[in-house]
Amino acid sequence: MTRLATGMLMLGGLAGLAVAGSAQAGWVGDVPARVVHYSNGALATDTGTRALYRTLKRAAEEVCPVASNTRLVNERVQQCRQAALTGAVNKIHNQRLAALHAANPKAG
Question: Is the CB of residue 56 less than 8 Å from the CB of residue 38?
Answer without folding.
Answer: no
